[in-house]
Design brief:
Jelly Rolls, 4-stranded antiparallel sheet, alpha+beta, 313 residues, 8-stranded mixed sheet, globular
């Protein structure tokens, strides 16, 4: 089974077919590639341009905007600071990241670097954030319909407070002798409801299929990769799959090659902070009782981040 491609524009005239495609993808491999998804391609290009602006700063400048802590989940994370909690003995990821959360949230503030004082950096990323938030809610409604929840807006009502993270990712170019040359991002699942990812043309993302085989997700210009996170898997009682994935050196590069830098942008979607993640009523019965105890969404996310990201805060 390859990763399915879903044309969201078809939902305008045959929504039940598209919903079936989406839920089937999530029930099997946990991933899909979205095309004609409604996010302007120019906006995606602007987000990549903003990412390259930030990562072109010196390390000292980027460290001025260091990760604020797990509850905030904002700021710069330097290479070697993140080790996925599924693999405690692996080498830390060599990537660097910059996280942006909900703007004007009480008690938390985004960093907007002084070195990038033109308003386009902030404005373009906030526009991107808003567009991805709309797509998140659109997909959550489709999922609710696909799971036959009595209220089609049940999930939307519990995911509509913009408790999301826009993460810019930069994988440095690596020499042949680098210890992380082949594994650029360790095996993991994502923590939230769904993730919406765009990647450049370098590639390297791969997914572990249910039967154990790894399959590459080839870059497709301006497409959006969507995958199930652990929150949604818990909510659906494992009906929807949060699938293991990683970033590797693409197979076209040999052991003697220098690996080019890579950029991607992940939009990590989460349930509202006060939401209780409790098994959905249509995903449990006498033969399949709830597998997970109820848990507060923000407490769950914070704990997963504490297990993954090195921080003194």
């Amino acid at each position: 089974m390859e990763i399915p491609t879903i044309d969201l524009s078809r939902a305008e005239y045959e929504e039940p077919v598209v919903i079936d495609q989406l839920v089937n993808a999530f029930e099997t491999v946990g991933f899909a590639t979205l095309v004609n998804h409604g996010v302007d391609s120019t906006l995606i290009d602007k987000a990549f341009a903003a990412s390259k602006k930030f990562f072109s700063l010196t390390l000292d400048d980027k460290l001025k905007y260091a990760f604020q802590g797990h509850k905030s989940n904002r700021g710069f994370i330097a290479p070697g600071s993140e080790t996925h909690d599924l693999e405690k003995d692996c080498l830390p990821d060599p990537k660097e990241t910059f996280d942006i959360g909900k703007e004007d949230e009480s008690g938390f503030n985004n960093y907007w670097p002084d070195e990038l004082n033109d308003t386009t950096f902030r404005d373009d990323l906030l526009d991107y954030f808003s567009s991805m938030d709309r797509l998140h809610l659109r997909l959550m409604r489709m999922i609710a319909v696909g799971l036959q929840l009595p209220d089609p807006d049940f999930l939307v009502k519990r995911c509509n407070d913009r408790h999301e993270n826009l993460r810019l990712l930069h994988y440095h170019s690596l020499p042949p002798e680098h210890p992380n040359k082949m594994i650029r991002g360790n095996v993991h699942t994502d923590f939230g409801t769904i993730t919406l990812l765009v990647q450049d043309d370098v590639g390297g993302l791969r997914v572990k299929k249910p039967e154990g085989e790894w399959v590459n997700i080839e870059p497709l210009s301006h497409s959006i990769i969507v995958n199930v996170g652990d929150m949604l898997m818990r909510w659906s009682n494992d009906r929807l799959k949060a699938t293991l994935h990683q970033v590797i050196t693409p197979p076209r590069f040999g052991p003697e090659d220098r690996i080019p830098e890579r950029y991607s942008i992940a939009f990590f979607c989460n349930a509202n902070k006060d939401t209780l993640l409790e098994c959905l009523e249509t995903c449990r019965n006498e033969n399949e009782p709830a597998k997970y105890p109820p848990v507060n969404a923000h407490a769950y996310l914070t704990q997963r981040l504490e297990d993954t990201i090195t921080s003194k805060k």
